[in-house]
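Quick start: what a row looks like.
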Amino acid sequence: MQRIRSLKTGWRLLKSSCEGVSKQVNIPLATSRSYTHCPPQGPNSFGLLFDIDGVLVRGRTPIPAAKQCFRNLVDSNGKYKMPVVFVTNAGNCMRQTKAEHLSHLLDVEVSPDQVMLSHSPLRMFTQFHKMRVLVSGQGPVEEVAHNLGFQDVVTIDMLREAYPLLDVVDHNRRPKDSIPPTKGLPPIDAVILFGEPIRWETNLQLIVDVLLTNGNPDNNWSSVRYPHIPVLACNMDLLWMAEAKNPRFGHGMFLVCLESLYKKVTGNDLKYEALIGKPSVVTYNYAELLIKQQAEALGWTTPVKRLYAIGDNPMADIYGANLYNHYLQAARRTKAQMQAKAGGAETVDDTLKMTSTELGGASGAYGVEEDLPEGCSSILVCTGVYSRDQEELPSDPTQTVTEQHIFHGHRDFRFDPTLTQPSFVVQDVKEAVELIFEQEGWPLD
């Protein structure tokens, strides 16, 4: 798996460019966002990571508690008191569009530098930016890809037009009368899966065609060429919560279909170059960079010490926040061991071992930066995928809230029930914010 050389590289990239902002204008992200310029109260330096679907909204309908809680996050002038980032596994739009949508729903200003979509970390995967990439998803996927830095982008529709005989499941879309000529395209170097597409049968067929022909659908299928060209996938959510009473299929379900088809046809496992979005560590690495930049805009001179991640999905939000917390603890232990070793002391390697998939493209070695947060706490709300209507809320919040019998996580992630255990369980996002303020000793206005 390709790795990010260093989070410092990502920090430089983050400061120099932004999705949805003209590349000709080099504007620091935080200049478009207003903050109350005051240092944290003593050691109480923290940042907030909000999931969106199931926490703040259900589809297009805001959760009532969301508007109420955000009144405590801004001052009388609407300026944020602490760093706030919205971390969602959605990825079918631009950050500017999502920010405008949230601003309307929450009655507070949300700017693009506060929004992190599932595909946002792809900006740091520069080794793929000059490759010819096939993109799958819905919404303005071509525009999204270009804004992330990809220079040569092919959509599924472009591939259909170039090879008109490939998409034949829907009889109404088959060529009529004469067979149209194949236009052909230069070979595709990599596949990027942004999110669930609209026509699953078309996307599944053409993606498998590309993987089995080494990027050139004019060729015959060949499972001998294995492993296949790189595949990068964003958003592993099997389920998500909209207005319906029950969860809806997410991009994770599309990945299950693609993996099953590839395995059925070739006998081999589909390989991912990177899995991005919650719960992978690289997503939280990137979110922490955004938090850090906002802290600088606030005028905070001490590093952010704690992160609080609020979500509704035990397998995505809670698992991811807890995995990142383990990563932070491992980084602290690594740093302590390096210091002890430099002093001549014997050390024992007791750091948590993470798979390359869980790191999701993050640095292969645990970071030892001076300003990494001390930890990340996970807070589970009961207004989305996890609900009192479907699961009984434990009377003791320390009891495990897990999917004990059915694992909804991605195939390449290990099932560790302890990672789906939240630090706190509350009814809604308003209670979550009140709990955080109490933990940090901040007054509620």
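That is the whole record. The longest helix spans residues 314-342. The two ends are 47 Å apart (CA to CA).
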